Amino acid sequence: MASDIKTMSAELARDPASLVFVELAEALRQRGQLEHAERVVLGGLEHHPDLLEAHDLYARVLVDAGTYERAVQVWTRVLDSDPRHLGAHKGLGFLNFRTGDLDGALEHLELALAANPSDQSVIRALHTVRGAAAEAAAEAEAAQEDAAAEGEDAVFAGLEGAGNGLLLVDDRGRVLGGRIEGEKGVDVSEAVAAFLAGAAQEAERTARMLGLGDWQWLVTEGPDGNVYVTPPTADTLLLIQRDRSVPSGRLAMLAERAGAVARQWLEGQAL
Amino acid sequence: MRQTKAVEAWTLEPLEQFVAESGAQLTLLMTPAGQVLAQHGFTRAVDVMSAAALGAAIVASSTEIARLLDEPGFATLNHQGVKHGIFLGDFESPRGRLLVLVVYGPDSSVGLVQLFFEELVEGLVAAAPAEERPQAVLAANFEDELNQSLASLFGR
Amino acid sequence: MSTRYQQALDSVTRVRGVRGAMLVAGEDGLIVAEALMEGVRGKAVAALAASLQKRFRQAMEAAAAGNPHFLHLQGDGGTLIVVPAPDGILVVAVGAPDMNVGLVRLEMLRAAEAIA
């Protein structure tokens, strides 16, 4: 290989516009000479800016160098030019898998397989990702069962305060998930839900009649705790309760996270 | 079952809206003579008649006091009890002078009742048909009319 | 309006973004004192703020969080803040959506103490 690299380098030196740069850069990449590979491929792209194979190679060099975000940008631009580009789908599939986005990985690998049904590397990668996805689903189910056994609610399982201090309510005052404890650990979720529905209707009316627009959230501070209320969807309410030491800004951050989880759970119920 | 009943249909929608927004427990719309046009929340005819008569009497008395004070009249009156409040409002409409009697509980307040009373007046004035020519009232007619009104007010 | 009430409200309305401040009888929803910009419906603010405070007090008490001493309603077009003062009076402020809530809150808490 070293002599091949020498030969290809000589040819490129004679003719900077030569397409040999692609093979040369790939050979350098495989030897781990990433900086050199990057210089060669970028030099070649100056002469051949529309050569998708070169862009694909550049992205692979970036991945080997750990520059994942830039690699995603390059592959995304390749797909803008050729939505069925095998290399780009394989590359993005790999990166998604690496960051734990199994759905994203499956999507790209399935498109790669559609582009070339006989590509064994894609078939193997799909097998790996599907196995990982099945494992992740089993783990999530086990976590929910564990959470339920420990008294945490399935809606907010894993979130801070899932067992006490988060409540999801429908617009008729019925508990959908979560739990609020009152004095001595007594579950007061139902009572809170009932009052909350009326209070939220009043908030909506107040905002409307006073020209405050659509109500987004409401926070109240009491001697024994702070409460944040927001509608994650048009017909549900989310209440977060924490002790007085938690400021309203932090409550807002918790609400955003809990609201996203609630919306996801609600979408799951609708199916 | 609809709790709001009306002798004259044009009063129904504004009154229902008022009850929903104000949280009133009982409401009567009537003439200064105590003739009821619509009611909400009452379950017995005798209660409607008593409330109408007493409400009209309160307004008549306070109108007289206003006259002694050289005032044109009191647009609204409020009596606040421990558990309930009573609100009386008085306004001009295309159908003549009308009174509203409202009884509210702890879920509402005089502020809310006053706020939505203004909207009720606007709604009733907008919905009211032109004033009918007054007819001579005979004793027999009056009894029949009253019975008819009560029947309408209780959905019978 | 009494000087004490006027001063209490002035300190709130001086904050940028505040369109109006009032003292409201909490149980009745009636105006005790007001300092409002043109276009702010004082009666509606008083009645609705008092009702809102009452409703959320019930929810807070059910959640064992106690009687609220601060309530902030955020809309995409404006803000309402309610702070209870002694004797059932509420200090109420209404303002722009980007009102400096921290400063308004401070002034309202001071106003609540001043009118006691």
Helix content of chain C: 25-40%
Q: What's the helical proportion of residues of chain B?
A: 40-55%
Strand order of the largest sheet of chain C: 2-1-5-4-3
Number of helical regions of chain B: 4
Classified in CATH, the superfamily of chain B is Dynein light chain 2a, cytoplasmic
Look at the helices and sheets of chain B and give the structural class.
alpha+beta
How many domains make up the coordinates of chain C? 1
Radius of gyration of chain B: 15 Å
Biggest β-sheet of chain C: count, sense, barrel?
5 strands, antiparallel
> How many strands, which pairing sense, and closed or not: the largest β-sheet of chain B?
6 strands, antiparallel
Unreliable stretches of chain C: none
Reading the helices and strands of chain C in chain order gives: HEEHEEEH
Describe the structure.
With 271 residues, chain A is an alpha+beta fold. Chain A has ten helices and five strands, in the order ααααααααββαβββα. Chain A has two domains: 2-138, Tetratricopeptide repeat domain (Serine Threonine Protein Phosphatase 5, Tetratricopeptide repeat, Alpha Horseshoe); 166-270, Dynein light chain 2a, cytoplasmic (Beta-Lactamase), CATH 3.30.450. In chain A, helix 4 (52-64) packs parallel to helix 6 (86-98). The mean pLDDT of chain A is 87. The two termini of chain B are 13 Å apart. Chain B is built from four helices and six strands; from the N terminus they run E-H-E-E-H-E-E-E-H-H. Chain B is of the alpha+beta class and 156 residues long. In chain C, a hairpin with a 3-residue loop joins strand 3 and strand 4. Chain C has a five-stranded antiparallel β-sheet, sandwiched between helices. With 116 residues, chain C is α+β, with helices and mostly antiparallel strands. The B-C interface holds B 80, 108-112, 114-115 and C 24-25, 27-30, 43-44, 46-48, 50-51, 54.
